[in-house]
Amino acid sequence: MKRFGMMALALLAATMGGGIAAAPASAQDMVSAEKLNHADKDAKDWLSYRGSYLDYNFSGLTQINAKNVKNLNVAWMHTPGRSKWGLQAMPLAVDGVLYYAGSYSRVFALDGATGQVIWNYFPELDEALIAKQTHSPDNRGIAISRGKVYVGTIDGRLIALDMRTGKKVWDVKLVNSQKLTIGFSGAPLAVKNMVIIGTQGGEWPVIGTIFAVDADTGKTVWQYHPIDASDPKVKGSWGNDSWKTGGGGAWQPGTYDPASNTIWWGTSNPAPLFDWAKDWEKDGSRPGVNLYTSSVLALDADTGKLKFYHQEIPHDIWDFDSAVGEFVMIDRGGKDLVVHPNKSGYVFVYNRADASIVNVWRANENSNFVQNIDPHTGQLIGRTSEAVGDNKGICPSFTGAIGWPPGSYNPKTGLYYRAVAEACMNLKVAKTTPVVEPQAQLFVGAQFTVTGPNGQKPFGHVDARDPVTGKLKFSIKFQAPIVASTLTTAGNLLFVPDAAGWLHAYDATTGKELWKHNDGSSHNGGIISYEAHGKQYVAVVAGCCSLSSFGNQFTYGLPYSAQSTDQGELIVYALK
Description:
By secondary structure, the chain is mainly beta. The longest helix is centred in the first third of the chain and has 12 residues, at 6-17. The chain is globular, with a radius of gyration of 22 Å.
């Protein structure tokens, strides 16, 4: 059957089944919980958002390597259509089939070797609601397990599709999006017999939620509200009843530690986004530390109960949330560690057992919102405040020194590769009228502009560092910040998709550029590597622009200003 090939299977199924081709019959048993637990041992597939629960964004394939990457060429492309703000998702690959989502939560299954469409699924959405959304119609990824593909929608639903045919298995409404104007833009995470997904909700006056649903039925197993007023510790950290509309969304997927049955997840900023308080503990629109926003949470996978946490930015007034979602699981010196980058540019290294601080290091060059973060306790030292009126030159910008597309860790080089933005912001802060009931309106609290540091234009760099100590090995500078994922491989390669449209391949040990190709548009999403029919491929999504990179069109001119904002492409590479 393997010799017969996916193309022939697809054509045969289309001929016999009346138009919908099917993935292999074994697909129902492909992605079990056990297989997900050990996805890092399976180099040919890409089974979850960051490749495996280790969150490495690393491929163990070596067919494409530092010696022959110069022969890399486009193998095939796919145009999904209706791609407003481009493509931002991370593709997945299972047994030679590539699955990915486009804007408006459109899902595709393609032959990984040829690009032949096996099936597609276009959900019916609440178009009026989507038109109001700030993060619409973005979709940043899918999950696969138990014979199904799972995708969230911006109008508050989670949908399961048959992995073989693309037919809908179930469709559940988890959020009253019509009232709250929030939904799901991030990828789900498959864990055991469940699917975990978190809502938006940092800039909107609502309370974010993490949902766990039964993977086979869609029935809710548990819900976790980061801002739970029944917990006195939480309620006491929000003055003026501000907890009622406190934000704290959890929109990017976290990860799972099978050894301790723990889900690691990050939460977003509180609302209003910016706060006018001089004395933030007693004054302003939301006095107090505002638990559990801008925090890293460890939840029991079976019950959703909080095991432990660390609030990285107490009373966040800069939009430096923790919902980046990336939790790199590293074993170092006999210790089980977790490396988590924060939007502020600070990278937190935790003990996996209790989220106690091992180290905190900074990735960005330009930072003044605090003097420092204590590397032993995580305490913010010399934090600034925002006065009513003009506040200029705050670094980094609210767009983040570190963005949501993941970095990558190579266990062979021992290096962590992370895109970093060097940008600052000017704020005109208003004394906001409290909003104490969830409603469909933005709750920002300031007007803002993004600027460059020290009179420059914003720029970016990709750094290779020791993930625990932060020691720099090499750095690659870019005209505009990188707003896409990086990928590293066992072939000693580092792939970086940039905002100008170039996909670069570097030597993962030295940072020397070995190859590049122009994809014709900005990269704002994921990149993976997988195997189909014994051949290695690299797949990247392209299309302008995410909210973090939209300003490039006005800041830098060509080629950024010529990029269309309503088209996207999946580009797949292989050796000639």
